[in-house]
Model the fold of this input.
Amino acid sequence: MSKKVKNNIELVSLHIPKTAGTSFRYILKEQFKKKDVARLDIYPSGAIMLNEKEFDSEKLKDKIKVIQGHYTYRNINDKLLLDSNVEFITWLRDPVERVISNYYFLNKIIANRLKELPNENLMNRIGKTLSEFVQFKENRNVMSKFLEGADLNSFKFVGFQRNFEEELQRLSKVMNWNSIKNLQLNTTDSKPRQIDQHLIELIEFNNQEDISLYKEALNNIPSTISNIN
Done:
């Protein structure tokens, strides 16, 4: 599609991987009519997926008022003709926690697709350890890549996953929504309880932009965890 997609979108939820996005999509559907909310993803190739089906049209259906999915701030503005009054929401997560969760989530997906037993970890057997995963260019500074070009201070809401329950209540006040039910979906429960300090330092070294972004957001955006170390 060469032209920008026309739409009636009022709210854009930008889902950075492993920042409670799946849970939040269900929350959006509780706050709006289900038909008003759509999942939209934009792949690096530029292909658009709407509700997990390839989309190739000049206009979204009029009923779609809210979109949520994986797309960068630049991509969504490049691909969709968004009104200047459209509001943006996103969630951030401690960069080290996000990288670790993403790695083990991918492990879980691969294991499920191959129907592996818990001790048959294909990623490790083919050499994709956490330390290797961390150093791949595409896995570094993911939050910064998704938000490149964005002014977070102009977002209607920026949430911090670390205090998800309390942040949801802050969100309900900011958006003037009904009381929000906390849904914990698509969580990763297979990661180990402790990560070697060397690995933590390696993650930090490879995600300096995300660490700076996260700290700056905590310092400049009201939240319920500003005083948590």
